[in-house]
Amino acid sequence: MSALIEPSGLLLIVSAPSGAGKTSLVKALLECDPDLVLSISCTTRPPRFSEQDGVHYHFLDRATFEKELAQGAFLEYAEVFGQLYGTRIEDVNRTLASGRDLVLEIDWQGARQIRARFPEAISIFILPPSLEELERRLRNRGTDSPEVIARRMDQARAELAHWPEYDYLVVNDRFESALAALQAIVIAARHRTARQRQYLQALLGEIAAP
Ligand code: 5GP
Hints:
This protein has nine helices and nine strands. It is an alpha/beta fold. The strands form two sheets. A five-stranded parallel sheet has the order 2-7-1-8-9, with helices on both faces. Strands 4-3-6-5 form a four-stranded mixed sheet. The N and C termini lie far apart (about 45 Å). The mean pLDDT is about 95. The site of guanosine-5'-monophosphate has 14 residues, from strand 5, strand 6 and helix 4.
């Protein structure tokens, strides 16, 4: 089992029910911020069309996932829609060692595990403007059958119920304003005194404490 190195950068958790637009928002957030790195999770779910191994997920068979889990390779993991998802400690360490900030796109169960271990992690929940709109978005994707959409709506309601556990709520009504809210949260988090203390040692050292 590998141990997690102490994070000096931000650990940013982003959760949302499927259809809330989380993936597009996170992608846009990363594109305009080179200091943010997306954690690539492992999953037993088969790749969707256009998903690449090692880019969107590390796609593992269940036996391999369970073996790694038993070896303590995961920082957090959860079962979602009957499939296993998890964040490898080794992958997180690689980013943290580079001094950059890490974005974890994980569900509420994983968010809980990360928060328990790192209370300073910042967690953001992305909400759809309404449940009707969420269902409309899931239908418009055109990738899932009505049964799968109905299951995803049930799962979405269950996921949405966990909003009170998060530090920030962002409604993805208009993409641009939701993105601006995410950027503002990251900027504010980077300016917290506890974090600035590490980066402004020279300046702060010159200023006498009262
Ligand atoms: P999807 O299969 O649609 O890509 O993801 C399904 C759900 O699994 C989403 O809520 C997503 O955030 C969550 N998920 C993806 N990777 C991880 C992970 O590493 N850990 C946890 N706990 N959830 C994850």
